[in-house]
Amino acid sequence: MERDKLTRARRWVIKIGSSLVTAKGQGLDREAIADWCSQIAALRAEGRQIVLVSSGAVAEGMARLGLKKRPTDIHELQAAAAVGQMGLVRAWELGFEAHGTRAAQILLTHEDVADRGRYLNARGTLNTLLELGVVPVVNENDTVATDEIRLGDNDTLGAMTANLIEADLLVILTDQDGLFDADPRSNPDAKLVSEASLAEPQLVAMAGDSKGVLGRGGMRTKLSAAHIAARSGAATVIAHGRAPDALLQIGRGQSIGSLLKPAQGVMAARKRWIAGQLQVRGQFHLDEGAAQVLKAQGKSLLPVGVRQASGNFERGDLVACIAPDGREIARGLSNYGSGDAQRILGARGDELAQRLGHPAEPELIHRDNLVLTG
Ligand SMILES: Nc1ncnc2c1ncn2[C@@H]1O[C@H](COP(=O)(O)OP(=O)(O)O)[C@@H](O)[C@H]1O
Ligand SMILES: N[C@@H](CCC(=O)OP(=O)(O)O)C(=O)O
Is residue 29 marked as binding? Predict the structure, then answer.
């Protein structure tokens, strides 16, 4: 997708990082928020639909509670997020009100996108809000999120939101002009990548995991977010949130920030949901033959090609498929819990019922529930 195609991008997810929203942790930057709201209002007047993903709950909570350092105690962190989220949504609501636009708060955890029913619910609600002309303001539900159910950073949350609503464009506003060929904080000569295909392998080496004091992910999670967004066909633009009219410039197809273009075809919605799950519960270690067959798209994983199963998982859990060289090549939903899986490893189709003592499904992972990852 080239820049001028962005003029026609209708559905946008716009993610704004903590350091931008809170003026580097000094408290909510209401002027900047008012400016983004007026740009978003102008984009909406052009007929675009916008979902906002706003970070800043923890940073604002810290400012309000007078905490100098990000709390390490989980409950203190969650308390800070709870205090800060109030200020965050209040500021966005006021900002949008000035343009006669309604906003809505959506707080999600990883469980909400991992559970199929809740995923469909979140999708339905977001789509309904957009149809009603409301701007959803999304954040992670930090107050209840523990590591087990945490997405962890809002770049990933923004990308998953783009998948949920099948957005045309994910915009990530941050405190740098975009993706540079090295971290500009430590390399003053670093050059901006103004446009790239996500297939280009050198991008990964460029994006470090170094980040600002308040940021969670750095550039690495932004690049990975672009890959996730591409699964549903969305392009990603990473740009400086304080560049004048940054959002409007993007909408006019001007060359601002870094445009990262999807490289492969769109993944079916159900497979996207599978690929978006973060909690892998176990591993199937494949033999060479099975690894080859899986890589040739469209085949199920059969017990005969699996040498070993590790982890403690139940039927329906996400399991990674590991090639003999140790690399993950696919993941999918197992038809068997780890106990039964152990019993049928290496078995041919006609041996399965006998080994288990009851009629059995022929696949360990059916092709409809399998996505290639490597
Ligand atoms: N190749 C790179 N190009 C640009 N920024 C990079 C790169 N590698 C690392 N970074 C760092 O990523 C930071 C932005 O990420 P982060 O602090 O998480 O921001 P945000 O709060 O907006 O999510 C930049 O300030 C920069 O120091
Ligand atoms: N949910 C957290 C944001 C976490 C996060 O990813 O922050 P950032 O890297 O600044 O986008 C909060 O509101 O504080």
Answer: no
Same domain, 111 and 92: yes
What stretch of H or E contains 14?
strand 11-16
Domain that holds residue 161: 3-272
Q: Is 142 in the pocket of ligand 2 (CB under 6 A)?
A: yes
Specify whether 261 is located in the same domain as 308: no
Ligand with smallest separation from the Cα of 59 = 2
Handedness of CA 282, 279, 159, 239 (dihedral sign): negative
Q: Give residue 153's Cα distance to chain centre.
A: 8
Express each pLDDT in 188-213 by its tens digit: 999 999 999 999 988 988 887 777 77
The pTM assigned to this predicted structure is 0.88
Select from 20, 55, 210 the residue to mutate for testing ligand 2; criterion: most ligand atoms less than 8 Å from CB.
55
Considering the domain architecture, whether residues 230 and 92 belong to the same structural domain is answered as yes
Is 175 among the annotated ligand-binding positions? yes
